[in-house]
Amino acid sequence: MSAFQILAFAVAAFAADAAAQAPAMANDTASGTGLPPPSEMQPVMDRQIFTHAISNQLEGRANGSNTEFRWEGQGWAGTDYDKLWIKSEGTVSNGAVDDGQQQFLYGRAVTTYFDLQGGLRSDIDSRPTRNWAALGIQGLAPYFFDLEVTGFVSGEGHLAAKLEASYDLLLTQRLILQPQVELNVYSKADPARLVGSGFSDIDTGLRLRYELSRKFAPYIGVVYEGKFGQTANFARATGERTGDVRFAFGVRLWF
Amino acid sequence: MITRLFRSLVMGLLPIALIACMNSPPTAVQSSAAVPLGIDLGGSGQVTASPSPRLPADAMTVKGEAASSEHGGGMQMAHAGHNDAHGTGTVNSVDPAKHKVNLSHQPIPEIGWPAMTMDFPVSLSVDLKAITPGTRVNFTIEQQPGGMYEIKAIAPAGGGR
Amino acid sequence: MNPFVSPLALTRRRFLQGAAPAGVSTLLQWSLRGALAAPASVLSGTEFALAIEEVPLTINGRQASATGVNGQVPAPILSWREGDTVSLAVTNRLSEPSSIHWHGVRTPAPMDGVPGLSFRSIMPGETFVYRFLVKQSGTYWYHSHSMFQEQTGLYGAIVIQPRSGYAQAFDRDYVVLLSDWSFEQPETIVSNLKFQSDYYNYGQRTLGTFVEDAQRRGLAETVADRLEWGSMRMSPTDILDVSGATYTYLLNGQPPGANWTALFRPGERVRLRFINGSSMSIFDVRIDGLPMTVVQADGNDIVPVTVDAFRISAAETYDVIVQPGPDRAYTIFAQSEDRTGYARGTLAPRAGMDAPIPSMDPRPMRTMTDMGMGGMEHGSMSGMNMDPGSMPGTEHSSRPGMSHGSMPGMQMDHGRMAAMKASPEAKQLQGSVGVDNVAMLPTERLNRAGEGFPPGRRVLTYADLRALKPGNDPRPPSHEITLHLTGNMERFIWGFDGKKFSESGPIELKRGDRVRFVLINDTMMEHPIHLHGLWSELENGHGEYRPYKHTINVKPGEKLSYLVTADAPGRWAYHCHLLYHMETGMFREVHVA
Q1: C-alpha distance from B37 to closest chain C C-alpha (Å)
Q2: Which residues of C touch B119 (CB under 8 A)?
Q3: Main-chain dihedrals φ then ψ at residue C570, nearest 5 degrees
Q4: Which residue, among A86, A94, A161, has the nearest Cα to A124 in the 3D structure?
Q5: How far is B47 from chain C (nearest CA, A)?
Q6: CA separation (Å) from B46 to B53, B83, B121, C371, C476?
Q7: CA distance C281 to C592
Q8: Which residues of chain C from 489 to 528 reach within 8 Å of chain A, CB to CB?
């Protein structure tokens, strides 16, 4: 069995276990009062399903020479304990989609602030597609840092990891400064995708948003796309820059 | 015939209108814009005993003071059974149609009232002809079942200014 | 009558006819008072017909669709008499199930109006006839217990005339029903809070407040304070989950600008029946220039106590008597606890008058006491010592930005904190999905009104409530039930003992039991806890004169207890009366068999 299959099985087992632990409904016998048992109506519906999605980055990135378009967002549907997640990011530059990563995960709330997530990652963009099994945690770390740490295993047994963190600094009630960083690591190089082994790339930015409403906040910022080690070599070989500072402007939306 | 109908209609409505006017709140007719008014559910009527209020716990400065200090809090309660009170004052205006007067009166200790200027409905049995603005008067008021005070006797005060 | 079957058409017609006299008497009241009376009406008698339907509502010129009764929001004032048997035929004209619960009124369990516990609900088109003997008097209220209909307008007052007369005399009598109204759908409000729990909090700490605090208290202390709260992932600015950012606060259904007015003749005694019929709001009420004498709490007589202000939490009621002397107007001012808005009315000798509206007090901040880290003064460690006379007496008010560590003699003893071991139940709760904090040192502070009052203002506290007559049941409790009020603010999950309603079973009591409920608030927000069907006798140091309440507001980090006699059989709801807390899990069944 490949690592991929093991991980997929683990996720399925995890989900089944969560379903089995689905809390028992309130008892349905009324003793001693002579009342017929009330039917399907519950006094409170505290296991509702909610659906949300957010675009953390939906922006144009401009340097002196050209402008790229970058998106990074996620959405989920589910209850307090069990959610299905979709995460997606990518960059469009010179008509090609690069750095595309999509994840389809099942998430389970495990501690006060963190969810455990497992599922599938597909790198879908203009380069060859890659699929990985994913397992990670997401939540709020002490001192209010938003954190996502995910590990991946590919069908061939290659490993990868991704760290994302951000922090919201309130300048005023509506003006918020957000430093953000995304870091990728790979165990094996993937030349077709211009990805080298070891610390591969960093995508970091400082964004200043103004919340016209909680759900709609235009922003401007400064972003840095950096490539390390072997990835940097690949970049240089194809004539790309290894470190790129750009001005970003976009909108943060959610529902 | 229409005039006759109209006349009888007015005659029929007149007593109702009079009743409506008499029971209206103190100054409803004078009010201007349509401010939403609260509905008065009426007074308490006869009460039994009325314990005097006490000060709240965190205003106590003495530590360890027993919780039940029945120190009078300064709010006078009208004693049940004393419905009559007497006062003196000066008439400011008279409203014969509504049978009420506006008085500036001296304090009335019997019911714990300070000096005030206010409207009083007057009992229908009282003749208001001698009561004109500027007149100094002695008057007797009686508490009605609804809680309001009505003048049941009023006469010019003899003597000086 | 079997409450689970709709009455026959004949019966329904009879009840509609029965309602006619009530309707006619209302009309008479209107004409006698003049056409300027507010649209609210009073229904009295023993037969009532209430229709729940969508009604258009205009607040400050903006239109919305609300859930009304007999065409109005708030629902009509119901005037009952103690000793009467009342019948209320409630027709549901909505397209979803509905219900009406008579809050604080002790009815047989099938008449209590809680879907899933008392009955199935009143289905769309159905008429359900409530019928019960009224065995109490005082000020109460009624509201829907279905989904979020209480938020969209289904609430109204109940006034029950006492059979043996009032304890204090008064000349005029007005209901003051406070509520909160949002143009957002309640489902959207909950969804917003699930994604971002501080969605409605526009009073958070910013770079600006950091600089101010650093200037006032020094950089090191400000940084330490921020780190202390940050390490807990909590914010001291969390006062109310839903604020004036979306709410318009109403007084008898009127926004502040409408100037709802209660008329009086100077010198008269006016009774004001304050009801907090809101979904998520706690109000601080005062009438500048007029001290209030509180005579009833939750419908029950108390020894009168004169105060300048009181805090009224969701579902509580306080009856006060005021005696305005001079010929002037007074402002009835009810500011929300987080100071994001206020409800306002006027007490005046003539309609059209108004008095200056005070500016709102500074916004309170949560303290380490609220986080359950012990009292501000020494000596408040555990033990059930409730006598207010033995507690140090000075009122402490916390100004915004004042940190726990900045008062001399009040250093948080970190050594003591570290040495103190978490109780076994606390260990179990910590770290679980439904719990973000456990109060290590919950304090008993019934003699404190809470944060946010300026010094010198006499504010009502629970310790001030002394019943006018001794309790009915002199027995001490035979056992204790301890419950932790818990929540996870980040996920917006609330519950008891770390569990939502759907994750727990009922609390079982035997008929006739005398039990003590001990509540420990592990969260940093107030929770007004309401037990249906049974009286909660709050242990506040007055012995057998402890007050009978139906809703008890537990302060953050507070521990309190109350005695209950399980004298009414049935399945009773037991929950926090902040609607969105209740709907996200803070609910239990108390089953008296």
Answers
A1: 5
A2: 265
A3: 140, 180
A4: A86
A5: 6
A6: 19, 11, 21, 49, 37
A7: 31
A8: 490-491, 493, 500-503, 505-506, 511
pTM: 0.77
Q: Which residues of C touch A110 (CB under 8 A)?
A: 433
- Predicted pLDDT of residue A40: 66
Nearest CB among A36, A44, A80 relative to C583 is that of: A44
- Give the model's confidence band at B69: pLDDT under 50 very low, under 70 low, under 90 confident, else very high: very low
Chain C residues touching A25 at Cβ < 8 A:
502
* Radius of gyration for chain B, computed over Cα atoms and rounded to the nearest angstrom: 22
Q: Do C305 and B77 touch (CB under 8 A)?
A: no
C379, C414, C416, C568 from C419: Cα distances, Å = 17, 8, 5, 45
Residue A115: CA count within 13 A, CB half-sphere: 23
Q: Considering only CA atoms, which of C463, C477, C468, C466 is closest in space to residue C563?
A: C477
Q: Which of A50, A110, A170 sits opposite C206 (nearest CB)?
A: A170
- How far apart are the C-alpha atoms of C254 and B48, rounded to whole Å? 36
- Is the Cβ–Cβ distance between C530 and C574 less than 8 Å? yes
**Which tens digit of pLDDT belongs to each residue from C409-435?**
333 444 444 444 556 777 788 889 999
Q: Pairing between strand C507-509 and C587-592? A: parallel
Alpha-carbon radius of gyration of chain A: 22
Question: CB A47 to CB C502 under 8 A?
Answer: yes
Chain C CA closest to residue B104: C327
Residue C426 confidence (pLDDT): 74
Alpha carbon A152 to its chain centroid, in Å, reads 13
pLDDT over threshold 50, residue A130:
yes
Predicted pLDDT at A7: 55
Q: Which of helix, strand or coil describes residue C310? A: strand
Residue A165: HSE in the Cβ half-sphere, 13 Å Cα cutoff: 8
Rg, C-alpha atoms of chain C? 23
Q: Are C122 and C97 in contact (CB under 8 A)?
A: yes
Both structure tokens of C420? 């103190």
Residues of chain C positioned with their CB less than 8 A from the CB of B148: 171, 265, 268
Give the tokens for residue A228. 């390390």
The pLDDT score that the predictor gives to residue B113 is 82
Q: Which residue has the tokens 């953050």?
A: C556
Determine the pLDDT at residue C35. 30
Q: What whole-number distance in Å separates Cα of residue C221 and Cα of residue C228?
A: 10
A197, with CB counted inside 10 A (0-12, 13-18, 19+), is middle
Q: Which helix (H) or strand (E) holds A163?
A: strand A159-167
* Residue A169 confidence (pLDDT): 97
Q: Picking from A59-63, B68-72, B120-124, which range would have the lowest pLDDT averaged per residue?
A: B68-72
Query: Å from C294 to nearest chain B CA?
Result: 9
Question: Which residue in chain C is spatially nearest to A40 when comparing CA positions?
Answer: C116
CA-based nearest distance A25→chain C, Å: 6
ipTM: 0.86
Q: Are strands B136-143 and B84-95 parallel, antiparallel or unpaired?
A: antiparallel
Q: Do chains B and A touch (3 or more CB pairs under 8 A)?
A: no
Q: Do C433 and A254 lie within an 8 Å CB cutoff?
A: no
Report in angstroms the alpha-carbon separations of A44 from A147, C81, C224, C531, C579: 33, 32, 41, 15, 10
Q: How confident is the model at residue B8 (pLDDT cuts 50, 70, 90)?
A: low
User: H-helix or E-strand containing C9?
Assistant: helix C9-33
